[in-house]
């Protein structure tokens, strides 16, 4: 069984788009870039399949099924030989693709103002400026109470927190999802976060949900997929080496292996610009009646993918509920961080927003780093593509993700990335190489998210 892209269809689309040149510039760009990128991912997966002589999928022998079932809750103790497996791609590979995005219509002069953009992203998408961001994130203002701010001048922190907890309990009692979303814009009390997030995401963990999770688990037990080894490898390379998350290794395997089998995830491709990859029964290449999506959820994991799940393990200890929360977070938010699109929360827009904020409000720093070959996006991209998971301390990361849920937007990731550069600007102005700049920004674990965001948006920038 081999993966194959439907090149005939892609070519037809490209030809149609060319004839409509000018009518949908961003769509044209997205389709061409996506087609090329998806083809590259499939080629990487196919090459691994061929080199290792491993099928994309196989049914496990009964003995192997029993063994996996017995060790389901302690898969972290398993040490399979993964030395020959490699991630299909890493964030830096994806950044190279985004850097090469071009729109010839704009390069011919349609939008001369964009020529002043000296960053790595050369796609003229509309992104918000500071006044618009202030308006969008008004609840982060200096005069608004926030969890994660220790020295509010308006209300003593303990008084705000006590009242905030009381309001949060009322929101939970009323089971009002919209009220919960508004509430978490000021941060979630630790004791209420799990329930509030579940309310916002409409996760109730009913018996049928638990049964569905068990069915996915059964599918994992019965069938072995090539992507299972990619998941194992990713967990071993990332979460297993993280001081915060290594204890959740078993949870990560369970959730991610089940996720790969979940065909309901395919539904998000109706609003995700990407195309789920297909495999064909051997000898039936290109015959649609013999095609299936591979993996079944249509999502090929990349290096760092498991870090989307890891922070959630602090909040949810019931595997089926943890699974549902992650799946909903993925189809609402995380897929946008590794998909090429012009959506305001898509990774291309986030990169452009980050670069625009730095170039506009910290021009000296931006130009200095650019001149020494340390384009800021080369450093910040990995933070944004993982939603800062694995970079911030967990308590700070959860405060950040509160706001992602509250504002139903990932734009705050770009704002925080710019705020980090602003915070370390003095040290960064002294560096003379990319390696030195990376060293200055190597450890974000001591940073306090909310003060950084407030200062950047509402205090130092006008």
Topology diagram in text:
Layout: E1 2-3, H1 7-19, H2 25-52, E2 57-59, H3 62-70, H4 91-99, H5 104-110, H6 130-136, H7 157-174, H8 177-183, H9 190-200, H10 207-222, E3 223-225, H11 226-237, H12 249-261, E4 278-280, E5 291-293, H13 319-332, H14 347-361, H15 363-371, H16 376-385, H17 394-407, H18 411-423, H19 425-428, H20 434-440, H21 449-459
Antiparallel strand pairs: 1-4, 2-3, 4-5
Overview of this protein structure:
The chain has 462 residues and is mainly α. Helix content is 53%, strand content 3%. It contains 21 helices and five strands. The protein has helices spanning 7-19, 25-52, 62-70, 91-99, 104-110, 130-136, 157-174, 177-183, 190-200, 207-222, 226-237, 249-261, 319-332, 347-361, 363-371, 376-385, 394-407, 411-423, 425-428, 434-440, 449-459, and strands at residues 2-3, 57-59, 223-225, 278-280, 291-293. The protein has a three-stranded antiparallel sheet with strand order 1-4-5. Strands 2-3 form a two-stranded antiparallel ribbon. The protein is globular and about 65 Å long. It starts with a strand and ends with a helix. 40% of the residues are buried.
């Amino acid at each position: 069984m081999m993966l194959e892209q439907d090149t005939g269809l892609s070519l037809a689309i490209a030809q149609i788009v060319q004839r409509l040149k000018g009518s949908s510039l961003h769509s044209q760009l997205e389709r061409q870039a996506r087609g090329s990128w998806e083809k590259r991912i499939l080629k990487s997966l196919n090459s691994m399949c061929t080199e290792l002589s491993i099928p994309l999928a196989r049914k496990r022998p009964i003995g192997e099924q029993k063994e996996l079932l017995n060790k389901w809750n302690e898969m972290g103790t398993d040490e399979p030989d993964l030395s020959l497996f490699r991630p299909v791609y890493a964030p830096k590979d994806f950044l190279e693709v985004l850097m090469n995005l071009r729109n010839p219509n704009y390069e011919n002069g349609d939008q001369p103002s964009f020529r002043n953009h000296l960053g790595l992203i050369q796609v003229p998408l509309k992104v918000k400026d500071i006044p618009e961001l202030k308006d969008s994130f008004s609840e982060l203002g200096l005069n608004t109470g926030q969890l994660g701010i220790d020295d509010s001048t308006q209300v003593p922190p303990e008084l705000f927190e006590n009242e905030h907890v009381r309001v949060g309990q009322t929101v939970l009692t009323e089971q009002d999802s919209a009220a919960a979303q508004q509430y978490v814009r000021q941060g979630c009390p630790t004791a209420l976060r799990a329930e509030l997030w579940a309310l916002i995401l409409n996760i109730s963990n009913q018996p049928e949900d638990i049964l569905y999770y068990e069915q996915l688990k059964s599918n994992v037990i019965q069938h072995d997929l090539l992507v299972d080894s990619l998941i194992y490898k990713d967990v071993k390379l990332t979460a297993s080496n993280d001081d915060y998350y290594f204890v959740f290794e078993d949870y990560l395997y369970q959730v991610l292996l089940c996720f790969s089998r979940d065909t309901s995830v395919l539904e998000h491709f109706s609003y995700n610009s990407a195309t789920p990859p297909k495999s064909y029964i051997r000898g039936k290449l290109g015959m649609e009646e013999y095609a299936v999506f591979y993996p079944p959820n249509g999502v090929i994991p990349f290096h760092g993918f498991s870090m989307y799940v890891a922070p959630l393990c602090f909040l949810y200890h019931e595997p089926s509920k943890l699974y549902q929360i992650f799946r909903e977070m993925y189809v609402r938010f995380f897929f946008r961080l590794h998909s090429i699109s012009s959506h305001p929360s898509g990774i291309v827009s986030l990169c452009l927003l980050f670069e625009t904020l730095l170039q506009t409000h910290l021009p000296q720093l931006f130009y200095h780093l650019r001149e020494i070959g340390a384009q800021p996006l080369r450093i910040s991209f990995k933070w944004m593509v993982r939603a800062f998971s694995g970079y911030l301390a967990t308590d700070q990361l959860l405060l950040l993700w509160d706001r992602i849920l509250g504002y139903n937007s990932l734009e705050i990731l770009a704002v925080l990335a710019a705020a980090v550069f602003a915070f370390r600007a003095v040290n960064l102005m002294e560096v003379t190489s990319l390696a030195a700049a990376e060293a200055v920004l190597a450890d974000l674990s001591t940073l306090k998210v909310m003060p950084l965001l407030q200062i950047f948006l509402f205090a130092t920038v006008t």
